[in-house]
């Protein structure tokens, strides 16, 4: 097995879409792997050009990726993955570490399609991996041990925050963090539009809204404080904040948000069962 | 007038609470001013100890700050400010640049990711506005706006910190309902906020555009978005900004 720092690590990607590109870019920019040691495969050149632009190798043959890389990340669309795994199963060895980022494809399905004892891990990423501030969870298959899990976690930390969880949490992560990106966008837009209603130009309002999100998120993360505690600190008696919070509560913001995570998670579980 | 890079810049603070500490810390950490060239005044030592811990000078005399610093930031509680200004007015000269920190400047300046706006008075010119903007960029994003926008900024960004906290907590609690432990859920929620905000800022994209990119047909996201709409999240959020801004304008008139 190639280990970072000993033999140069060769990382392969089967599927070359946005998530694959985001992870590859993160790994390369953080110096976790050299671009020339990254090989990506896809049916056409439509996405492979982005890999070549990063300095990576490319191919149209999925098999070639398995044959030249020991760590392979499968980033195809979920419905395509079973076909692809069946196609390459015969070149998979005990040395391989195979990683799936496909939503809704369970470890047991992955293991069924691959030779017995294959080391398989499953990652649920989210889109901000493209700016190296993703939120990712890893679930390990039956034959993946602590060392490859740690290896993968170390690599993926190039793209943001990454932690191992029981597989049962993966669908929840999809609902909270994968779909959560869209929920945050909706919230940011609404904050800005409130300001636009009050007379602020749209561009400025959107900029300030996003900056407020960023700064608050950073405080929550770096200080490890409970959001309710931080909220209390901002509330001057009779001040502007408590007036606004009352409106949030009257509008049922919390219930709507919880329902969104619930609905997205429920759909993730549904899709997993298909 | 002291200008950064010529005579050493001396920055004074009247009022030494959390906001003053945050700005001072940002300026010092970014190397915009040396700690020894910062002088803060407050009635008691309760807050001044934090300034001394940074290496700054302290005093109980507001007048002293005006007399030794040309750039003075007033960071008292709003209701105290008129009294303080009256008290020091007789030592203010044409060389002074006086800055008032408006109610509701976002606490996120503590993380050097603040959102600040500056409005200039009649006699403040472009050069001192730029000087101040350059200094405050140590604490985050900072831009000059017409004074009419300051109350809106308070409602959106000052109070907005609390709105974001509420939203983050609700995201996490949705996940807790679905079976995720609380600590993990809170961590992921905040990280999702951070990553999404970074994408919005760095790529300058409209949030509706980014939202569309995350929506696979029939996928998890669109199911969640429908619930958000059914719950009226947007209306609640707009109302919050409106209510906070309205209160800011009310307080300004008192």
TrEMBL record, chain A:
Top-level EC class: oxidoreductase
Catalytic activity: L-proline + NAD(+) = (S)-1-pyrroline-5-carboxylate + NADH + 2 H(+); L-proline + NADP(+) = (S)-1-pyrroline-5-carboxylate + NADPH + 2 H(+)
Gene Ontology terms: cellular component: cytoplasm
Record InterPro entries: 6-PGluconate_DH-like_C_sf (IPR008927), NAD(P)-bd_dom_sf (IPR036291), P5C_Rdtase_cat_N (IPR028939), P5CR-like_CS (IPR053790), P5CR_dimer (IPR029036), Pyrroline-COOH_reductase (IPR000304)
The EC number(s) this enzyme carries: 1.5.1.2
Binding site for NADP(+): 75-78
Sites where the protein binds NADPH: 62
Keywords, in A-Z order: Amino-acid biosynthesis, Cytoplasm, NADP, Oxidoreductase, Proline biosynthesis
Subunit structure: Homodecamer; composed of 5 homodimers.
Protein name per its UniProtKB record: Pyrroline-5-carboxylate reductase
Gene transcribed to yield this protein: PYCR3
From TrEMBL, chain B:
Assigned keywords, A-Z: Amino-acid biosynthesis, NADP, Oxidoreductase, Proline biosynthesis
Example of a GO biological process term: L-proline biosynthetic process
Pfam families according to UniProt: F420_oxidored, P5CR_dimer
Protein name per the record: Pyrroline-5-carboxylate reductase 3
Role this protein plays: Oxidoreductase that catalyzes the last step in proline biosynthesis, which corresponds to the reduction of pyrroline-5-carboxylate (P5C) to L-proline using NAD(P)H. Proline is synthesized from either glutamate or ornithine; both are converted to P5C, and then to proline via pyrroline-5-carboxylate reductases (PYCRs). PYCR3 is exclusively linked to the biosynthesis of proline from ornithine.
Start and end residues of each Pyrroline-5-carboxylate reductase dimerisation domain: 147-251
Organism of this sequence: Carlito syrichta
Assembly and oligomerization: Homodecamer; composed of 5 homodimers.
Record field: catalytic activity: L-proline + NADP(+) = (S)-1-pyrroline-5-carboxylate + NADPH + 2 H(+); L-proline + NAD(+) = (S)-1-pyrroline-5-carboxylate + NADH + 2 H(+)
């Amino acid at each position: 097995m190639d280990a970072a720092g000993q033999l140069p690590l060769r990382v392969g990607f089967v599927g070359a879409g946005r998530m694959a590109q985001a992870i590859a870019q993160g790994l390369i920019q953080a110096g976790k792997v050299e671009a020339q040691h990254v090989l990506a495969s896809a049916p056409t050149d439509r996405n492979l050009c982005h890999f070549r632009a990063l300095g990576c190798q490319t191919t149209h043959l999925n098999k070639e990726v398995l044959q030249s890389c020991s760590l392979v990340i499968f980033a195809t669309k979920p419905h395509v993955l079973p076909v692809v795994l069946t196609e390459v199963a015969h070149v998979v060895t005990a040395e391989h570490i195979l990683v799936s980022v496909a939503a809704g494809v369970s470890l047991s399905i992955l293991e069924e399609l691959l030779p017995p004892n294959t080391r398989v891990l499953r990652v649920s990423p989210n889109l901000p991996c493209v700016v190296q501030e993703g939120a990712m969870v890893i679930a390990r298959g039956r034959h993946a041990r602590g060392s490859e899990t740690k290896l993968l976690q170390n690599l993926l930390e190039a793209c943001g925050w990454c932690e191992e969880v029981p597989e049962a949490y993966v669908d929840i992560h999809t609902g909270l963090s994968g779909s959560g990106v869209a929920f945050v966008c909706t919230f940011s837009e609404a904050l800005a539009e409130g300001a636009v209603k009050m007379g602020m130009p749209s561009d400025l309002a959107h900029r300030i809204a996003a900056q407020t999100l960023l700064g608050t998120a950073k405080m929550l993360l770096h200080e490890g404080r409970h959001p309710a505690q931080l909220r209390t600190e901002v509330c001057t008696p009779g001040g502007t904040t408590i007036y606004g919070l009352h409106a949030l509560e009257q509008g049922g913001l919390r219930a709507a948000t919880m329902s969104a995570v619930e609905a997205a998670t429920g759909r993730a579980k549904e899709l997993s069962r298909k």
